[in-house]
Amino acid sequence: MRSVSKLDFSLPMLVALLLCAGLLTISSISSAPALDHQNLFQKQLLGVALSLVPIGLMWWAGRDRIFAFAPFLYFFALLLQASTFVIGKDVNGQTNWIDIGFLQFQPLEILKFATILFLASVMRGGYQGFASYLAPLALFLPGVGLVVTEDFGGALVLSVIFLAILFAWRAPIWHLALALVAVAVVFPTVVYPHLKPYQQARLTIFLDPYKDPRGQGYQVIQSTIAVGSGGFEGKGYKQGTQSHNGFVPEPHNDFVFASFAEEQGFVGSVALLVVFALLLWRLAGMATDAPRLQDQLVFAGVLGQIGFQVIENIGAALSMLPLTGITLPLVSYGLSSLVSVLSTLGMAWVIYRDRFQEI
């Protein structure tokens, strides 16, 4: 017997608003002299179109088949991530990309999606004592271990996903607090010394970017100048002088919020933050509406991923948080990240649609 829930279009409507904000910004910044030959807007539209394929497949497959496919996708993602150590392409100092001629992508984006899905499957029985941590850790540690040396920001996202799922799993709060204390001890003593020099600098320069204004601090300084120059109402479409004249680095990707804020101003920036907040609120509501823990864990993982990326990207653009190269979901340019985020949200929507379906 199957119980079918009424379709809820609030999630796709919020996603569409954020996509429009991103496409508007990328359309504007792609006309900058340094970027006008890269067809950024057309490629971003292609990313939207490509995402319809996995979303359509998941819509057809339904909740149970999606979960059944989780282990295969996870181990495939791990294999792809491991292969970057052999065939990885160097992009901005990181060899965590795969180039197959007609397509260049980050396996990390597939790994995020697969990790959420597989952890939810493995942890569906709920917390049942300390021994129940073994299986989740056996899945989480290999993925984050493969990522952390080349992409510390990506490892952070995976870690937040894991913590969010643990919280929804009803793990004891003191366990989570102890884990955070362990991270606070291990990171500066074990992880930080093994990071590349430029990675170390990016993690600390936000504290005083003017200490190295022509070097590591340059990016953050120019980003904050662009945000401030937007004023209350913004300079208008294609009128961003800082982002269009080459002062803001990566104005379509890492610092897309600075480009958006310069042209749309304080009003547009607040509106963007409100839409992101509504998206996160809706994901939280979907989690509370789901009767099964397995589905709740998926929504928690998606909420952790999207929420952390939004906070970190915008915080870095405002020189309030370390610069880790994390993209702004649905707004930053990037085919693999866009397809991954849209697929992840599409998965959540399908699971929510089938939340009352009996197995």
UniProtKB/TrEMBL annotation:
Q: Does the keyword Transmembrane helix apply?
A: yes
Which UniProt keywords are listed? Cell shape, Glycosyltransferase, Membrane, Peptidoglycan synthesis, Transferase, Transmembrane, Transmembrane helix
Matching InterPro entries = FtsW/RodA
Report TM segments. 44-61, 68-88, 100-120, 127-146, 152-169, 176-195, 266-285, 297-318, 330-352
Membrane topology, as annotated, equals: Multi-pass membrane protein
Its Gene Ontology biological processes? cell division; peptidoglycan biosynthetic process; regulation of cell shape
Q: Which residues form a coiled coil?
A: none
Give the family this protein belongs to, as stated in its UniProt record. Answer: Belongs to the SEDS family. FtsW subfamily.
Q: List the protein's name.
A: Probable peptidoglycan glycosyltransferase FtsW
Q: Which organism is it from?
A: Deinococcus yavapaiensis KR-236
